[in-house]
Write a structure and sequence with these properties.
The protein is of the alpha/beta class. The chain is built from 7 helices and 7 strands. 41% of the residues lie in helices and 15% in strands. α4 links the parallel β4 and β5.
Length: 256
């Protein structure tokens, strides 16, 4: 059975793979034997992530790209294929999140959220599709949010709308591309320590973090490496009969 979790010979792209949860996903891919292209806009963070992952797995590739831009996405896929030979796995993880007042949010801010958190997912899926066909199938794992599961937040309207759209895109792509042996699933994390939501240190979002710890059955927040296991499973042949699923990974937080 362990052979079904072996990703040797596979190539994974992880958007937003230069930090936070994305770095944990990339580490999982590398630990399972895949070559990994980590993608991000900030080259300094890409270099730091590369140093963190160097020596794990067969090869780590850095790709600087803004996945909300179609030309960048197409170049991302071309660079990955040129350097690593193929694409088998895509993690749509890149996102932004910050609090905003819906009554005062500008159209420019709204459009930026949708472009980075939702449109990028479509662009990346569309760009890897021909490469998946060449290798006989593929795996797409979208990183959503537990906020779309019976939750809401008064300051995260655009973020929640984007992630909710991702949920339904996941299910529709699973239906559309299932005959091509492409499985599409979505992981819905809860609170995870990252630059976007610091759970320790001077930038700790104390009210949110303390509430989550007190109300979560596991009595802690998540860390990026908590997602290595589910990443490997969903990227591997072991999950070949699972598609269109929205998988909550929040330490039980949405049970409250």
């Amino acid at each position: 059975m362990l052979e079904a979790l072996d990703l040797s010979g596979k190539v994974a792209i992880v958007t937003g793979g230069n930090g936070g949860l994305g770095l944990g996903l990339a580490r999982g891919m590398a630990n399972a034997g895949a070559a990994v292209a980590i993608v991000g806009r900030n080259m300094e963070k890409l270099e730091a992530a590369y140093e963190d992952l160097k020596g794990i797995g067969p090869k780590i590739l850095r790709v600087q790209a803004d996945v909300s831009k179609q030309d960048d996405v197409n170049r991302m896929v071309k660079e990955t294929v040129a350097a690593l030979g193929r694409v088998d796995i895509l993690f749509n993880n890149a996102a932004i999140s910050y609090g905003h007042d819906a009554a005062r949010m500008t159209l420019e801010e709204w459009n930026n959220f949708i472009a980075i958190d939702l449109t990028s997912v479509f662009l990346c899926c569309q760009a890897v599709y021909p490469e998946f066909l060449k290798v006989g199938g593929g795996k797409i794992i979208n990183i959503g949010s537990a906020i779309t599961k019976q939750m809401g937040h008064p300051k995260l309207i655009a973020y929640a709308a984007s992630k909710g759209g991702m949920d339904h895109m996941t299910q529709s792509l699973a239906a559309a591309w299932g005959p091509d042996n492409i499985q599409v699933n979505c992981v819905l994390p809860g609170l995870v320590d990252s630059e976007m939501m610091p759970c320790e240190g001077p930038r700790k979002q104390s009210r949110v973090v303390d509430w989550a710890i007190q109300n979560s059955p596991v009595r802690r927040y998540g860390v990026p490496d908590d997602f290595q296991g589910i990443a490997i499973f969903l990227a591997s042949p072991a999950s070949s009969f699972i598609t269109g699923s929205l998988i909550v990974a929040d330490g039980g937080l949405t049970l409250v």
